[in-house]
Amino acid sequence: MRERRTVARMKLRVGAHYVSEQLTIDGVVTDLSPDGVFFRSDYLDATGEAVRVSIDVPWLSHPLQLRGEVRWVSDASPIGGMGIRFMDVSFEDRVVLSSLGLAGLVDEGQGVPAS
């Protein structure tokens, strides 16, 4: 399968909150770029679902709130989750997203706890 991403991804581990019409769940973001995330969760939504994702950013007093769409779903154990593409991300939010991996949150392969 050909890679369609145009922006580099960062492996990391940071808490996040997911809200759609069907689900409200806490989980972990383990793969991030300014264009989207992999939201790790045992609870999965349908492809195409409109969502809001709040990402915990250590240096901000509030989570980063982003709108997106579920682009793909994986129910593979033990790393199930959803690929979410962000929509209408401001320049400021793109800078914060790009900075997350530089802030010492990079997952060095030690594994991410199940949500």
Structure in a nutshell:
The protein is 9% helix and 43% strand.
Structure report:
By secondary structure, the chain is mostly beta strands. The protein is built from one helix and six strands; from the N terminus they run E-E-E-E-E-E-H. The protein has one domain (about 10-95): Beta Barrel (Thrombin, subunit H). Helices cover about 10% and strands about 45% of the residues. The longest helix is centred in the C-terminal third of the chain and has 10 residues, at about 90-100. The model is unreliable at about 105-115 (pLDDT under 50).
H/E topology pattern: EEEEEEH
**Terminal Cα span:** 28 Å
Please report which band the strand proportion falls in: under 5%, 5-15%, 15-25%, 25-35%, 35-45% or over 45%. Answer: 35-45%
Question: What's the CATH class, please?
Answer: Mainly Beta
Mean pLDDT comes to 83
**CATH fourth-tier homologous superfamily:** predicted glycosyltransferase like domains
Biggest pleated-sheet summary: 6 strands, antiparallel, barrel
The helix-and-strand class reads mainly beta
Relative helix content: under 10%
The number of distinct helices, counting runs of at least 4 residues, comes to 1
User: C-alpha Rg, in Å?
Assistant: 13 Å
Which architecture name does CATH use?
A: Beta Barrel
What spatial order of strands do you see in the largest sheet?
A: 1-2-3-6-5-4
Shape by Cα distribution: globular
Domain module count? 1
For the secondary structure, the number of strands is: 6
Spans of at least 5 consecutive residues with low confidence: 107-115
